Amino acid sequence: MATEHASEIVLSKRELRAVSAFAVACAETVLDLFEAERPDDTRPRKAIAAAREFARGGERGKALRDTASAALKAAKAAETGAAREAAWAAMSAAGSAYLHPLAKATQVRHILGAGAYAARAAELHAGDAPSVAAAYIERAVRCATPEVVAVLLRYPAAPNGGGRTGELTRRLDTELRALDVRKSLDAPASVSDDV
After folding, report:
1. Do 176 and 152 form a contact (C-beta atoms < 8 A)?
2. 63: burial class by Cβ within 10 Å (0-12, 13-18, 19+)?
3. For 80-106, what is each residue's pLDDT tens digit?
4. What is d(CA 32, CA 132) in angstroms, rounded to the nearest whole number?
5. What is this structure's pTM?
6. CA distance 42 to 107
7. What residues contact residue 128 under an 8 Å CB cut-off, 6+ apart?
8. Percentage of the chain lying above the pLDDT 70 cut
């Protein structure tokens, strides 16, 4: 008889698709930073397209994994930090479909990685300007649907480490968790069937 571990999280395909749609919305904002440096390298664009296809009802499979891997290789070929981070955002978008149902802080990167990498790419492109990263984090917060926030809340807070991108991941994590708290405080006392 199989037993469910307390550390397992139940995730529906609909929820995984919502997470992927959020990751795509974040990653595509900085794709041009990669393509300006490497206009003939379509690997990050293909990773974002594969993630978008999954978000719209496609299946997880070899093509999605392959495009994520290819975007990672594209990041390694990038010459500037901004282009590298933009390719990592694309890789994260494709990888978001593989969010594991384990209550581990490291899984938060599958949800928020594309947003954090996009913010770092924009920050580097602007001469390492923290205000630009902050604006991208705020944009990502606005893109997150209640479903994405609900998935995030099932996981522990983002882990320490990861350098500047790790800092941005934790900032995005904190902002989204606070957003949910604000919504809860403003919500009417009755509970809707749509929740």
Report:
1. yes
2. middle
3. 999 999 999 999 999 999 999 999 999
4. 16
5. 0.89
6. 27
7. none
8. 89
Separation CA 131–CA 40 (nearest Å): 31
Average per-residue pLDDT in the chain? 90
Residues pairing with 179 in the sheet = none
* 80: its two tokens: 């500037």
DSSP string, 83-146: HHHHHHHHHHHHHGGG--SB--GGGHHHHHHHHHHHHHHHHHHTTS-HHHHHHHHHHHHHH--H
Q: Give the tens place of pLDDT for each residue, 18-31.
A: 999 999 999 999 99
CA angle 39, 61, 99 (to 5 degrees): 90
CA 93 and chain centroid, separation: 6
Q: With beta carbons less than 8 A apart as the criterion, state whether 61 and 5 touch.
A: no
The radius of gyration of the chain's CA atoms, rounded to the nearest angstrom, is 17
